[in-house]
Amino acid sequence: MTGADPLRLYRTVRLIRRFEERAIELVHAGQIVGGIHPYLGQEGIAAGVCAALDREDLVTGTHRGHGHVLAKGADPARMLAELCGRVTGLNRGRGGSMHAADFGVGVLGANAIVGAAGAILTGAVWERRRRGAGIVGATFFGDGAVNEGMLLEAFNLAALWRVPVLFVCENNGYATTMPVDGAVAGTIAGRAAAFGMPATVVDGQDPEAVREVTAAAVARMRAGGGPELVEARTYRFDAHHTFEHQVRLDYRPPEEVAEGRSRDPVDIAGARLDPAARAAVDAAVEAELDAAVEYALAGPHPDPATALDHLYASGLTARTGGG
Amino acid sequence: MPRLSYRRALTRALADEMTRDESVVVLGEDIRVAAANVTTGLLKKFGPERVRDTPLSEQAFTSFATGAALAGARPVVEFQIPSLLFLVFEQIVNHAHKFPLMTGGQCAVPVTYVVPGSGSRTGWAGQHSDHPYALFAHVGVTTVVPATPADAYGLLVSAIRCDDPVVVFAPAGALDLRADVTDLAPVPLGRGVVRRSGTDVTVVAVGHLVHDALAVAEELAGQASVEVFDPRTVYPFDWDGLVESVSRTGRLVVVDDGNRSCGIAAEIIATVVERVRLAAPPRRVTRPDGAVLPFAPALDRAVQPGRDQLTAAIQLTLKDG
Ligand SMILES: Cc1ncc(C[n+]2csc(CCOP(=O)(O)OP(=O)(O)O)c2C)c(N)n1
Ligand SMILES: [Mg+2]
To answer: Could you report the average pLDDT of every consecutive run of 10 residues in chain B (321 residues)?
Structure first.
């Protein structure tokens, strides 16, 4: 699907928004242990990019990864069950928020190590294409990740070997509390230029703009073009991580937060629908999430005796740690 | 008596050493706002030149610290999560650790690496819950795992003053401890301590597990007299201190939050049996081989060494000999 579809785009953005708000409630209620990195405010990027991808295309996400997984088509109920650590979750309760994966829809996983996923995705796309698939990939990362050597090395490999990977930088202005200006020498787009990769800067708050830019890049890549970079300018509406709901860290001026929040991707996408259609989507999303919460909380907790299941794919059994 | 938290003990050690020695600088991610609540107040006191927030470039800033050390600084590098030590293993092992020998003694690399919140944080899952102190012991980098606020202070101070690289693991399971601390003093590297005297069995416990071992020892008090030995430094290890203890008790159980294969527990048992004739086979309680901590809390707990396992291991050792 690459054409404009405002209704579908709005639905995805709205789904991610409400999913995250529900997830935060579950964090506060103690149902999601370890907290989450909310994707609030950045929904337009995952929604816009994934709207320009096919189901077979591959993506990797980040620690702030719920939006990527949902936008690529994972079942919100199984995603929420994963966050709640249930066996009915996408990863059978083994991965949680930062490792949610759904290979069935091309999500090779969120990843908790900043900058680490780009090279993984590059290798995966390379192999699928070697096997004849016409797929492309998109790897999401933050502005913090552009200072990790691993990611820059992945730029080089992808460009050198012309692997069709869209490197999607979600520039939300901060890596935790570190502002971009204090961390990035040169520019993000300039890093792509160094490897001969085209780079486009896009308004990440406008899901349709993100979709358009992605669709154009994907078309070039499907026609034999090499990797590209998209820098989506965005703003994180909430905490870096929900621990900030308990511990206040002072690093974003309130005026800046208010200004950032004033450009809301849900409203921008919603304004393109007629109000009745928008209300119908909202109601459908709400119903889907009501069911998702119910499904997540009804799922059984994993049996501690299975703690080492899936440790080895080869069938190797690990010695346990007891005396 | 003042109550000191483990985190504040680390803060105090940093502040005291920065005051004492201008060459001490601190580097790390989000340390200005003290996201890990360890570098609290340092920016205000010592300024941005000595308290430097880094971009997310761990490999580079770890070797940057090596370079600064070669030029006279005593850098302290804070890592937000234990798994970052895998990322910078190359920089620590292949450079910082090797420079003195490779240069024929022309230099020292006095860098301290601090991980506030090592091991499981419950719910942080596979890539944030490792406890790789044995890796550093294996390559021979000085490695400490303080169990108490007083030791957190004293070992960090000694680490900063040490002319070699030192890794300081501050276990998540100990970070919230508070204790009455009368005098803060450096704790020598490589010196263990008997936390509880006993006559039937020596339990060696590393880091936060010292407190589990003490609790188990109390529970078993009616049945057995358990000595608890806290090595504090896992490399170089206080072999003489441990041998002295085991020579008295004749039995050895080790509880260690590392992986089983090639873990510090394996090294402890091997070295003790080389030097002491035990009355019963030694036992160890560890993480499993190749442990990856699963997300769900019950699974996360199941993979870590538990008090029940330790109790069982002690009882078996007593029964065996
Ligand atoms: C290699 C690495 N370094 C540090 C961390 C700790 N950490 C997790 S998220 C984060 C900030 C990431 O910033 P950015 O890439 O801009 O993504 P954002 O959180 O803004 O979405 C940090 C420092 C980590 N997980 N991995
Ligand atoms: Mg960011």
So the answer is: 90 98 98 96 97 98 98 98 98 98 97 98 96 98 98 98 98 96 94 98 98 98 97 98 98 98 98 98 98 97 97 96 76
Q: Is A140 helix (H, G, I), strand (E, B) or coil?
A: strand
* CA B197 – ligand 2 centroid, Å: 51
Q: How far is the CA of A45 from the centre of ligand 2 (A)?
A: 13
Q: Which class is domain A6-298?
A: alpha beta
B128 part of the active site: yes
Residue B35 to residue A249, Cβ atoms within 8 A: yes
CA pair distance B102, B109, nearest whole angstrom: 12
Residue intervals in chain B for CATH 3.40.50.970:
3-180
pTM of the model as a whole? 0.96
Residue pair B291/B107 in contact (Cβ under 8 Å)? The answer is no
- Residues in chain A within 8 Å Cβ distance of B253: 323
Residue of B nearest to A27 (CA): B123
Domain boundaries, chain A: 6-298
For residue B21, what are the CA distances in angstroms to A258, B50, B73?
43, 11, 10
Predicted ipTM > 0.90? yes
What CATH number labels B193-320? 3.40.50.920
